[in-house]
Amino acid sequence: MTDKAPTTVSDLHVTALRTFLVEGPEVWLKRHENLAKDETDLGFSLLLYAAFTKATKKKFSPLYSVPQLIRYVADHRLSLEEHARELNPRVAESLLRFALGDESLGERPPFGVDTMSVVRAEMYLLMALVQEAKLNDAELEEFIKDSAVLANEWAAADQEQV
Q: At what angle do helices 11-23 and 25-37 cross, to 10 degrees?
C-alpha cells in the first residue's frame, strides 16, 4: 500500500495551460505562480508534458530525423535572441526525441540536468510548436482538451501501477 496521492488534471490546470498558450508566459506566471511553486501538485506538469508530446508528434511524426530535430532546436534558439541561453540545446533535443518515443535515446528526463532546465525547454518548445501550428480558437481548445484527456489517461495508468 502507498500514500501516494493520485495525480489529476483539474480545471485550474487547464485554465493555466490556456493562459500560457494564449496570453504568454508572463501573464501565466502572474496568474498561476502558485502552480509553478507547488512541487506537490503534479497535475499541471503532467498536462504541460502531454501538450508538449501532442504538439511534438503533430509536427514531427511519423517520420523525423535526429538532424532535423537538432536543426529545429538551433533555429528556435536563434529566434529567442537574448534568451537563447535559457534553452539548453541538449535538453531540448532529448525532450523532442523522448516525446517521439526514440528508443535509441538511452536516457530519460531530466537527462542529468536540473528539473527547471527541462521545464524551461518544454515550455519554450511547446510555445513554439503551438504558434507554428497556427491553430484557430476552436482547434486550440480541442488541443488543450485532448492534452488534458491524455494527461489524465497517463495519471490513471500510473495509479494502476501503484
A: 150
Query: What is the pLDDT tens value at each position of the chain, 162 positions in all?
Result: 345 556 889 999 999 999 999 999 889 988 887 766 665 568 888 999 999 999 999 999 989 999 999 999 999 999 999 999 999 999 999 999 999 999 999 888 888 899 889 999 999 999 999 999 999 999 999 999 999 999 999 988 877 775
- The number of domains in the chain is 1
Residue with cell 518544454: 122
Cβ of 45: how many Cβ atoms within 10 Å? 21
Q: Which domain holds residue 57?
A: 11-156
Spatial separation of the C-alpha atoms in residues 6 and 152, rounded to whole Å: 10
Instruction: Enter the DSSP assignment of 106.
Output: -
Please name which of 4, 30, 3 lies closest in space to residue 16, comparing C-alpha atoms: 30
Is residue 125 included in any domain, yes or no?
yes
Q: How far apart are CA 67 and CA 60, in angstroms?
A: 12
